[in-house]
């Protein structure tokens, strides 16, 4: 079986226990305004221009048979409505600035890749992490991928928003050793405003997952003025405590580097002014969920 991925990270140390290979599945039903992986949001074919790498040689512009590319304000600009993803610009770009984001990958190919790296991951207590996008958005592929990893003896972890029907979680849970779950905002209306969806299914799925007794780590991305308020963090802690106070929560500092990815995609980032929290503020926010 094949699925759609947009990246593979080797020797990752923040995506679960030990050293891991992280596979990013493409497509997500949420639209968080701060999304750190905008290239993984949409399903389907896509390309971007890594503007910092571009040497302005204009090769891509002369190569494109659809006249989808031109120079605008000193930068290569794509008319995405004209592009048919022939890949000619990607193949000709001397700076590797023009890149396809999407890739079809086979389960076997990914299992083989991960097992080749096992010498590093196994000694560290690591394994594979399936992330996204939202991995539950490709449920059949995800299930087969996890099954393949388990058959190969690779410890598995999934990083998910839990936004899916409970049946999807039921079908993949037997093949997952560790869940990394996002709970971003507890108030339903605020959640809708910033992610585009209600959080009721997410909270219900969290209760279900907690009942399975498998290791869960809740992770909260700290977005200034949105998720990173003491009120929201304490509300999430209280909710998790009401389900199982033993479940740990981790906060993730704001990543201010995501903005450049939006420029690669000709999209506007929601706020270019935001920066990561300094240590003292981070500790104060952390204390809301770890006390
Ligand atoms: S992929 Fe093909 S059609 Fe699309 S911009 Fe590149 S050269 Fe043009
Ligand atoms: S071919 Fe590559 S380096 Fe040259 S202008 Fe196009 S994107 Fe930039």
From TrEMBL:
GO terms for molecular function: 4 iron, 4 sulfur cluster binding; metal ion binding; oxidoreductase activity. Coiled coil: none annotated. InterPro entries: 4Fe4S_Fe-S-bd, 4Fe4S_Fe_S_CS, Aldolase_TIM, BssD/PflA/YjjW, Organic_radical-activating, Organic_radical_activase, Radical_activat_CS, rSAM. Residues 14-291 form the Radical SAM core domain. Its cofactor is [4Fe-4S] cluster. Residues 45-74, 75-103 form the 4Fe-4S ferredoxin-type domain. It catalyses: glycyl-[protein] + reduced [flavodoxin] + S-adenosyl-L-methionine = glycin-2-yl radical-[protein] + semiquinone [flavodoxin] + 5'-deoxyadenosine + L-methionine + H(+). Keywords: 4Fe-4S, Iron, Iron-sulfur, Metal-binding, Oxidoreductase, S-adenosyl-L-methionine. Belongs to the organic radical-activating enzymes family. NCBIfam families: PFLE_PFLC. This is Glycyl-radical enzyme activating protein. It comes from Anaerosacchariphilus hominis.
């Amino acid at each position: 079986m094949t699925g759609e991925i947009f990246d593979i990270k080797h020797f990752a140390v923040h995506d679960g226990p030990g050293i891991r290979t992280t596979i990013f599945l493409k497509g997500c039903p949420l639209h968080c305004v701060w999304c750190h992986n905008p290239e993984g949001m949409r399903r389907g074919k896509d390309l971007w221009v890594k503007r910092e790498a571009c040497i302005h040689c204009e090769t891509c512009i002369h190569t494109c048979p659809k006249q989808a590319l031109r120079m605008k304000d000193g930068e290569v600009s794509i008319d995405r409505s004209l592009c048919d993803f022939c890949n000619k610009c990607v193949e000709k770009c001397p700076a590797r600035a023009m890149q396809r984001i999407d890739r079809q990958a086979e389960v076997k190919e990914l299992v083989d890749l991960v097992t080749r790296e096992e010498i590093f991951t196994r000694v560290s207590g690591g394994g594979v992490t399936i992330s996204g996008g939202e991995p539950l958005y490709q449920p059949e592929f995800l299930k087969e991928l996890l099954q393949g990893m388990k058959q190969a003896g690779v410890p598995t972890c999934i990083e998910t928003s839990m936004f899916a029907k409970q049946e999807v979680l039921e079908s993949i849970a037997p093949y997952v050793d560790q869940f990394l779950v996002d709970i971003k905002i507890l108030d339903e209306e605020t959640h809708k405003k910033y992610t585009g969806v209600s959080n009721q299914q997410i909270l219900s799925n969290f209760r279900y997952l907690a009942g399975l007794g498998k290791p869960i780590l809740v992770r909260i991305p700290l977005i200034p003025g949105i998720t990173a308020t003491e009120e929201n963090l304490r509300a999430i802690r209280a909710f998790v405590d009401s389900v199982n106070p033993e479940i740990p929560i981790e906060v993730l500092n704001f990543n201010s580097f995501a903005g450049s990815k939006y420029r690669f995609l000709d999209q506007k980032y929601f706020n270019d002014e935001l920066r990561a929290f300094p240590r003292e503020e981070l500790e104060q926010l952390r204390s809301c969920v770890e006390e």
